[in-house]
Amino acid sequence: LKGARLRKAVVSTQSTGIQAWFDAEIKKIGVDNCYFPMFVSQSALEREKDHIADFAPEVAWVTKSGQSELAEPIALRPTSETVMYPSYADWIRSHRDLPLQLNQWCNVVRWEFKH
Known about the structure:
Radius of gyration: 17 Å
Number of strands: 5
Structural class: alpha+beta
Largest sheet: 3 strands, antiparallel
Distance between the termini: 18 Å
Strand content: 15-25%
Strand order of the largest sheet: 2-4-3
Order of helices and strands: HEEHHEEHE
């Protein structure tokens, strides 16, 4: 895919080592790892439209499953906030639920190109 980044094995090994070191360090201070979905429904993304306005043209959309059209397009997550913040609203109900210290190792997808 033109413009996609590939990592050689040596770079991947270095990156994994740095991630492992950092992960161990943040665990010492009580940070937990979490995972949020890679896909975001169009309606969920629309609720965050002000947040994603700057990179909305770069959102990658899935519109088909096999030969079937999806009822609602699904975005490949362009930023994590669109899936994380609604969950935080459910999890944090008072000051007793704080601090919430989470780390997410993830990918985001944006097709950055000249318009």
